[in-house]
Task: structure prediction
Amino acid sequence: MQIDIWIAIVVAAIGTYALRVGPLLWTQRHFNKHKANNTEARLPLWLSVLGPLMIAAMLGTSLIPKTPSTASWIATVIGTVVTVFIWRKTKSLGLPVFCGVLSFGIVFGLVLGADVKLPG
Result:
């Protein structure tokens, strides 16, 4: 790989880390300041509104396949259904996402594999 690709990867990794650790550090500092003053700390209203909006935006962009095809739409629908079903059973985050991505990959591979014509 060329050095400029590695630089881009490192910059993207640092930026992604900063986007996640920045709010965490700010919130910890905010709560520690209130704890030191013996006052009740509350999350700001903008954070309680912005957080779900960002999650909804990521959900919206991830549900539309990059290359719209029958295989990708079928896999997306099945992956979404599996994710929602597992979430309703567990009310957790990790297992539903894992199962949804796994089912997407398996279904996409099976449907795409059925579309591929083997020579001979």
Residues 77 and 119 are 30 Å apart (CA to CA). The two ends are 37 Å apart (CA to CA). Helices lie at 3-36, 45-62, 70-90, 94-115. The mean pLDDT is 82.
